[in-house]
Amino acid sequence: MKNSKKFILFVYGILGLAANLAHPITPTLFNIRGFESTLFGLAFSMMSLFNFLFSFFWAKKLNKIKINLIFIVCCMGYAFGQFLFLIGNNVYVMLLSRAISGMFIAGVFIGMPYYFALISDENEKSSYITKLSTFFTVGGTVGYFFGGFLGGINIYLPVALQSLIYFVAAFILFFIVDVKVNNDKLVTKKLFDLGIKLNRIQISVMLLTFCLFVSSTSLTQMFAYYLINVLNVTPTINGLIKGIVGILSIAINFSFTLKIQNSKNIFKWIKFYILILFIMYLLFINVSNINMLFIVLGILIMVIDTIHLPILQSTCIKNTIKEEQSIALGLQNSVRSIAMIFGAILSSYLFAFNNIFPFLISTIFVGLGLFVVVNIKRN
Questions:
Q1: Which of 25, 146, 261, 379 is least enclosed, having the fewest CB within 10 Å?
Q2: What is the pLDDT of residues 246-284, one digit of tens each?
Q3: What span, in angstroms and rounded, lies between the C-alpha atoms of 322 and 117?
Q4: DSSP character for 257?
Q5: pTM of whole model > 0.90?
Q6: How far apart are CA 319 and CA 208, in angstroms?
Q7: How many other C-beta atoms lie within 10 A of the C-beta of residue 65?
């Protein structure tokens, strides 16, 4: 089982790599196809919207269908969505491809942490949730780097490879995931009838999830767009920057993140983390006229941004009984998706007015997240 866990972690990291192959070339691809800048945010929002709409659907199915079936369906569905993204030369096909990809990637995002929560001992859950998020995030940043490199060879190559990897991974996960995990007795709920009463910590985690993902989405979406359309960097350099983020993320997630999760007063550490993030954002939005410093601060913020997902997921699981963990993860993924929709649409429209406004939005929502944590401390 232990070796199986390690291999599944590796596969999940490869899925993270594949999921981000297209990101560094997407702004250039949209320019080639003559799409307006607003479609950049709208397409991302469409994917996040369907991620949100199907989060509860997959959370419900996890209690009824064998997990390996969920993985094969969702990975193949995502592969098909990316194939449409590859061939989509008009707005409608592009938006349809984003909807399909969002619909199916939700099952992977919810299914994998839920699977590890089921097969891990209580004292291992936080560690594995951190490893899952770290493998996916680091894999994603490496994928961003390779996507930029491959895009320099052929702009369509990263998307084609992305679709192929998810197609192959569908069969790998189908055969290696332990189908003997007993989730047949877990409670099932109607699609939008959660049947659980959120406690104060869970509500705070959901609020933090919303604030931090509005912030990180606004930054990561428009930072790449800013680099290409304002600073005129190439997709290769754009990918290289994300590769640097990935390397630094490995160190910070396997040290500082685990320290936070193992702390007896986790919200004290989260408050410290968000305070540092807020200060860095304030510096970031005030040095936009100094290109190199602006890029360096952007990289450091994106590195620190990788901390909050595993912390919020493990906190959600720790404060939820086993029978309701899939539903709680589904709710958290939905909140995350709504935040990403809001952040992507708002930042893409604000970019048209002022290219610094998206980063100002990121700063404001980190400040709101800090307010949430401070009030948890008071309670």
A1: 379
A2: 778 777 877 777 777 667 777 788 888 899 999 999 999
A3: 8
A4: I
A5: no
A6: 15
A7: 13
